[in-house]
Amino acid sequence: MSVAARRYAKALIDVLYPRKAESGLEQLQKFTAFLSEQPEVRQLLENPTVSADRRKRLLGEIGDALFFDGVIRNLLNLLVERNRLDLIDRIVASYRLFLDEKLGVVQARVTSAYPLDPGQERRVAARLRALTGRDVRMELSTDPQLIGGFIAEVDGAIYDSSVRQQLRLFHRNLTSS
Question: Which CATH number does 3-100 carry?
Answer without folding.
Answer: 1.10.520
